[in-house]
């Protein structure tokens, strides 16, 4: 391999001090996830509920079409529309898959390949590193929850020809996907930070989610006490949805508690991630 | 401005549990290229990590390029290029992508980072394989890649931790040529940590020798090699050398596989008395030559003195 004959020469530019030092991590991570095998299939599948609901919103404004009557009935008002959309089992399942797809390797691979040294030898703090990594998974989770939610609002306005969405529902339609994405994203990143084996992280994200539901359902089935459903991530998400959108349901009165559980767990996951990242030796 | 201090450390102590990896190190490093020598486990890498702000010293402090190592570690790292010893490349990226990415993380605008990545990869000799995934690189290529990553943002100070580790002789030679070329430009200060004495001897103007967490010697390479206080004589003896060795027991004497003795004598030692001692010991001197003092001699002497002081 030849060595440049011209010799070393200096770079004439000026280094910037950006307030968002983690931005290159975010941009690079977005591209890396997008380039992954099966990413387009996953994105298309995750967007599927949005397409169904988009059609339903359209059909709801055209009663003469007499299509999708059951779904149209379920989304007869805005609160029901967003609650049904955000808490439908398929979308939640796809978000868990998205979390493990986009988040499982983010920190575990850096642990495996000791890449922390490369990041931290740059003007980046450990918190900047975490912000960069977390923003990647958050981006993908929000891209398939918050963005379609906002598009549904837009579609409703366009199809009905009037701005009829109340401010409360609009706020709820923004806050709910953010809370859920923060929760699922922090769960993914936390499990990714616990092991240098990304497969372990992938499996654990899925297992933790499914097991929380299985255990909750088991105790609920045995003791016939709905309080056990607080053990289930899935039930808490649905319950919080009913609370924030103000729709009636089995758990409605405890929806606030579910919201607190989700927020509390998110904080706990972040504390664990920071502890893990601080302990990584470079 | 040779005397301008790049690094100033005062009473730095750092421990891993009960083990003192850095033991009260006080150090001033000026401009130029410095070699940091020491046996494995001497504390070289730990010292580098303390300077980079990766590790917080339990006591003491210091500045690098005028920035406090504990108070402004990010300002320090912005101005430093670090080539780590460990294999820590981010897999799944090609060399251009990775180098540009690291440039961006240092604060370079994206387009500039990409342009510069091509340049430094060309400079280190990876131009033909710059679009290959870094995980497919050989050890030597990975070392070059790490050097390119350390150079991409054109730092003021370059830390090279065992830069020739795992390289074949040709690759090692080329790596040292690159280091010398960067140093020759005179705009970048370099600290080269190695346990390979020949690397330091070939590249550095100053040498710091570490052992057991302490800086035990700090001098110019030229001074170290002159070693005014040392006279190394090569001798070949005929006859029973036991009596001769006994008479010269006060001085360090080693024998190589060809039977040549190397005797470390003080500079003021009268060389004629060697012949008298040989005559008295009934041995003939068949070969007599003043040996070139190598950095290894300086290193061994410094380590020996350090150990003696410790006891």
Provide a descriptive summary of the structure in words:
The complex is a heterodimer of chains A (282) and B (311). Chain A is mainly alpha-helical and 282 residues long. Chain A has one domain. Chain A has 12 helices and no strands. The two termini of chain A are 31 Å apart. The mean pLDDT of chain A is 89. Classes of the chains: A mainly alpha (282), B alpha/beta (311).
Shape annotation of chain A: globular
Mean of the pLDDT scores of chain B? 87
Domain module count of chain B: 2
Order of helices and strands of chain B: EEEHEEHEHHHEHEHEEHEHEEHEH
Helix count of chain A equals: 12
Uncertain stretches of chain A: none
Care to count the β-strands of chain A? 0
In short:
The complex is a heterodimer of chains A (282) and B (311). By secondary structure, chain A is mostly helical.
Record keyword descriptors for this entry.
heterodimer, A: 282 residues, mainly alpha, 72% helix, 0% strand, B: 311 residues, alpha/beta, Rossmann fold, Alpha-Beta Plaits, four-stranded antiparallel β-sheet
Please describe the topology of this protein.
The complex is a heterodimer of chains A (282) and B (311).
Chain A: H1 23-35, H2 39-60, H3 69-74, H4 78-86, H5 89-112, H6 116-120, H7 126-143, H8 146-160, H9 167-193, H10 198-223, H11 233-245, H12 255-279
Chain B: E1 5-16, E2 19-30, E3 33-37, H1 44-52, E4 59-64, E5 67-68, H2 73-78, E6 80-83, H3 95-105, H4 110-123, H5 139-151, E7 157-161, H6 169-185, E8 189-194, H7 197-203, E9 206-211, E10 214-220, H8 221-226, E11 231-238, H9 242-247, E12 252-255, E13 261-265, H10 272-280, E14 284-290, H11 295-310
Parallel strand pairs in B: 3-8, 3-9, 6-7, 7-8
Antiparallel strand pairs in B: 1-2, 1-4, 4-5, 9-10, 11-13, 11-14, 12-13
């Amino acid at each position: 391999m030849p060595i440049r004959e011209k010799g070393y020469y200096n770079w004439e530019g000026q280094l910037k001090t950006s307030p968002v030092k983690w931005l290159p991590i975010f941009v690079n991570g977005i591209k890396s996830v997008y380039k992954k095998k099966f990413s387009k299939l996953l994105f298309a599948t995750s967007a599927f509920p949005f397409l169904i609901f988009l059609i339903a919103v359209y059909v709801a404004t055209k009663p003469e079409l007499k299509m999708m009557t059951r779904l149209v009935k379920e989304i007869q008002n805005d609160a029901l529309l967003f609650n049904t959309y955000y808490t439908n089992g398929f979308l939640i399942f796809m978000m868990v898959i998205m979390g493990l797809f986009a988040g499982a390797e983010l920190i575990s691979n850096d642990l495996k390949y000791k890449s922390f040294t490369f990041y931290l030898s740059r003007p980046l703090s450990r918190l900047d590193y975490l912000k960069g990594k977390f923003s990647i998974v958050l981006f993908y989770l929000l891209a398939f929850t918050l963005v379609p939610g906002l598009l549904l609002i837009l579609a409703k306005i366009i199809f009905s020809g009037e701005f009829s969405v109340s401010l409360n529902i609009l706020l709820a339609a923004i806050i709910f996907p953010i809370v859920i994405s923060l929760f699922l994203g922090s769960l993914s990143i936390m499990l990714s930070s616990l092991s240098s084996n990304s497969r372990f992280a992938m499996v654990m994200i899925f297992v933790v989610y499914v097991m929380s539901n299985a255990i909750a359902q088991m105790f609920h089935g045995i003791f016939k006490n709905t309080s056990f459903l607080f053990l289930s991530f899935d039930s808490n998400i649905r319950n919080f949805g009913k609370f924030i959108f103000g729709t009636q349901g089995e758990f409605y009165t405890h929806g606030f508690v579910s919201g607190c559980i989700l927020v509390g767990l998110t904080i706990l996951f972040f504390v664990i991630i920071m502890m893990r990242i601080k302990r990584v030796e470079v | 401005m040779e005397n301008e201090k790049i690094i100033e450390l005062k009473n730095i102590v750092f421990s891993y549990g009960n083990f003192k990896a850095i033991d009260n190190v006080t150090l001033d490093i000026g401009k130029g290229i410095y070699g940091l020598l020491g046996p494995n486990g001497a504390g070289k890498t730990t010292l580098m990590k303390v300077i980079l702000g990766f590790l917080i010293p339990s006591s003491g402090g210091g500045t690098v390029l005028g920035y406090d190592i504990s108070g402004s570690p990010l300002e320090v790292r912005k101005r430093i290029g670090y080539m780590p010893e460990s294999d820590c490349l981010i897999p799944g990226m090609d060399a251009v992508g990775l180098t540009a990415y690291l440039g961006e993380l240092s604060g370079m605008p994206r387009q500039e980072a990409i342009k510069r990545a091509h340049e430094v990869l060309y400079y280190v000799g990876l131009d033909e394989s710059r679009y290959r995934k870094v995980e497919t690189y050989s050890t030597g290529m990975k070392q070059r890649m790490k050097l390119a990553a350390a150079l991409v943002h054109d730092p003021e100070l370059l830390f090279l931790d065992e830069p020739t580790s795992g390289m074949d002789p040709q690759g090692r030679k080329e790596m040292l040529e690159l280091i010398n070329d960067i140093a020759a430009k005179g705009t970048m200060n370099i600290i080269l940590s190695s346990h390979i004495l020949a690397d330091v001897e070939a590249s550095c103007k100053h040498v710091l020798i570490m052992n057991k967490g302490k800086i035990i010697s700090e001098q110019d390479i030229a001074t170290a090699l002159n070693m005014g206080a040392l006279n190394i004589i090569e001798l070949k003896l005929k006859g029973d050398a036991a009596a001769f060795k006994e008479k010269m027991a006060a001085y360090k004497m080693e024998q190589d596989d060809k039977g040549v003795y190397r005797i470390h004598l003080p500079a003021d030692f009268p060389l004629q008395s060697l012949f008298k001692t040989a005559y008295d010991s009934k041995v003939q001197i068949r070969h007599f030559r003043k040996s070139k003092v190598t950095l290894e001699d300086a290193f061994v002497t410094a380590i020996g003195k350090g150990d003696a002081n410790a006891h």
